[in-house]
Amino acid sequence: MISHDAEDPTRTRVLWADPEPDAVEGHVQALRRAGFDVACVASLQELRAQSRNAFELIVLETAWPGEDGLAACQALADGEAAVLACSRAGSPLDCVASLEAGADDFVAASAHHVELTARARSLLRRRRASAPAEMLWRFNLSARRLTSPSGATVTLSSRCAALFAALCERQGVALPRAAIAARVYGTAEITSRAIDVAVARLRRKIDGCDGAGRFIRSVHAVGYLLEVDEGARLELQTAATGEARPRAGDLPRLVVRRG
């Protein structure tokens, strides 16, 4: 059974796995006082289920009655969370075995709360520092310019910019052709074929900016959606100064009048 303190999305989430939760309650409370959001599990089965969730740090007791804690450590080693192995035995051999099994660090369960908290913070700092830099794309609507993380740029026509901004506003959500017509052209009296041609033109144009055309996908019988690569982010800026649009609904309707 999992137990946790009140979840706060601004706090680092920690999962502590120990077959005797009462024995480590002091450590758990110390981490909570230090600002961590700590959940506890008392079986490796629960650990396997909960480790799929968004925890930044997993503290794992390596000695489990009738089960292989080091094998569990190996299974966690390739995951997103940092692994801090913990052992009530606390011998040098336990430390070596845990590190060989893929743990990022080791602490004896007999360590003082202050040491454990410091190790957790240090481990998280190292992990975050080694994480790849965010892949940030920027589209400046005023300048009609798309900039890739590498610095490559492409400037769009007014119509392509309006279409691209409409897709950016609803990233990850399929935008029906009728909605695109109303949003970009100011009227629903635009054929589906005309929308398809406009999207194809936009794709070709932005593909010259580090292949950004791949971000626009067609959705059968619906329309189109824009979705950037995993780990990347596309920021829509609405002013020449580079001001990021704060909320999805803040942009005025993007209408390009036909001459």
Helix content: 25-40%
Helix run count: 8
| Strands, total number | 15
The succession of helices and strands, N to C, reads EEHEHEEEHEHEHEEEHEHHEEE
**Nearest-angstrom radius of gyration?**
25 Å
Beta-strand percentage? 15-25%
Predict the CATH topology of the largest domain.
Answer: Rossmann fold
Mean pLDDT: 87
CATH superfamily of the largest domain: Response regulator
Q: Briefly, what CATH class of the largest domain? A: Alpha Beta
Q: Total domains, how many?
A: 2
**Main sheet overview:** 6 strands, mixed
From the spread of the alpha carbons, the general shape counts as elongated
Strand order of the main beta sheet, please? Answer: 1-3-2-4-7-8
- Which structural category do the helix and sheet elements fall into? alpha/beta
CATH architecture of the largest domain: 3-Layer(aba) Sandwich
User: Are there runs of 5+ residues with pLDDT below 50, and where?
Assistant: 245-259
Distance N to C terminus: 66 Å
